[in-house]
Amino acid sequence: MSSDESNTNTDSDAPRHEHSCDEATLFIETPDLIEDENPGQPSGSSASDLETSYLHPTSLLFTLISQVRQNLIPAAIAAYGAAKGNYVLLVLAGLGFVITLAVAITRYLTLKYRIHDGELTVESGILFRRVRKVPTDQIQNIDIVQNVFHRLFKVAEVRVETASGKEPEATLRVLSLDQVQQLRDKVNARPQPQAVKSNPSELADSQPVPAESPVLTIPVWWLVKAGLASNRGMVLVGFLLGIWFQFNSEEGAWKQIQNLFSGFDFQNQTFWFWLSLVGIFLAALVLLRLLGIGWFLLRFFGYRLTRNGDDFRISCGMFTKVSATVPIRRIQFISIHRTLFMRWLGMASIRIETAGGAGGNQEDATTSVSKRWFIPAIPESEVSSAMAAIRGDLEWTESEFAWQPLAERAGARMVRIGIIISAFLILVGLCVSRPWGWVPGVALSPWILWYELRKSRSTKYTRLQRGIAFRSGVLTKKTSITFFDKIQSVTFEQSPFDRRWGMGSLAVDTAAAGPAGHRIDVRFLDAKFAVSECRAINRLASQQ
Question: How many C-beta neighbours within 10 Å does residue 1 have?
Answer without folding.
Answer: 23
